[in-house]
Amino acid sequence: MTATTKGWGDTSPPPMLIQCPRCDGHTLSTQRGAYTLSPEGDEDFEPLIYTLVSCDKCRTPQLLKQMSEFEVDGSWDWTDPVREWPGGASEPLSPSIPPAIAREMREARACFSAKLYTATAVMVRRTLEGMCVDQGTSKKVLFAALGELRDANKIEGRLFDWAQALRVLGNQGAHFSKEAVGREDAQDALQLAEALLDYIYVFTAKYEEFQQRRAKPGKGDSSS
């Protein structure tokens, strides 16, 4: 199987435009190495290309991934490179997160990518509001709604503190203030919000499934 790799599999690839997390913007990069992962024997998966590049401005490395892609004419090529490491806003949200809440989170990410840090904080706050509504809270005020989640044991002490910190930052963004929301605060808000969503919609569900499976006959505790 052979195909053109859009410049990334060549021996002397041209510089490529990347989103550098350290430079906080688009920069050119230089390829430092590439690895193609293809099926062997009875394996059945589409080939992948992993490429190590470094930012031409700050030399920060990152790993890019390309997937094989079939064209309508029956030929195939490689998709455009996407960042595999370090993790960033390009990572997909868990499908377990309700679509309406995931939409708010993606908009928060888009605001951050556009360097709209105050807007990022506001969208994170909207995400928390959506989470509370989805979890059946009766309070309209976010502070009280988060307290309901804590009292119902849906979020625990540290998670509650995180959520309150995000609420306060969102308030700062929603109301005029001489103090703008900074990049680091906006980035932390995104990461903490995603951790909260994963806890509520991903890890809690996995733990409940585990408990139900262990509760079945023959799966009880055993003495050791």
Q: Can you tag this structure with a few keywords?
A:
2 domains, alpha+beta, 224 residues, Four Helix Bundle (Hemerythrin (Met), subunit A), disordered N terminus, flat, 6-stranded antiparallel β-sheet, 5 helices
Q: Would you spell out the secondary-structure blueprint of this structure?
A:
Elements (H helix, E strand, L loop, with lengths): L15 E5 L4 E13 L10 E8 L5 E10 L5 E3 L3 E4 L13 H15 L3 H18 L7 H10 L5 H18 L8 H33 L9
Antiparallel strand pairs: 1-2, 2-3, 3-4, 4-5, 4-6
Report what the structure shows:
This protein has 224 residues and is of the alpha+beta class. The longest helix has 33 residues, at 183-215. Strands 1, 2, 3, 4, 5 and 6 form a six-stranded antiparallel beta sheet that branches. 42% of the residues lie in helices and 19% in strands. α3 (142-151) packs antiparallel against α4 and α4 (157-174) packs antiparallel against α5 (183-215). The chain contains five helices and six strands; from the N terminus they run ββββββααααα. The chain has two domains: 16-85; 99-215, Nucleotidyltransferases  domain 2 (Four Helix Bundle (Hemerythrin (Met), subunit A), Up-down Bundle), CATH 1.20.120.330. The chain has helices at 99-113, 117-134, 142-151, 157-174, 183-215, and strands at residues 16-20, 25-37, 48-55, 61-70, 76-78, 82-85. Mean pLDDT is 82; it is low at 1-10. It is flat, with a radius of gyration of 22 Å.
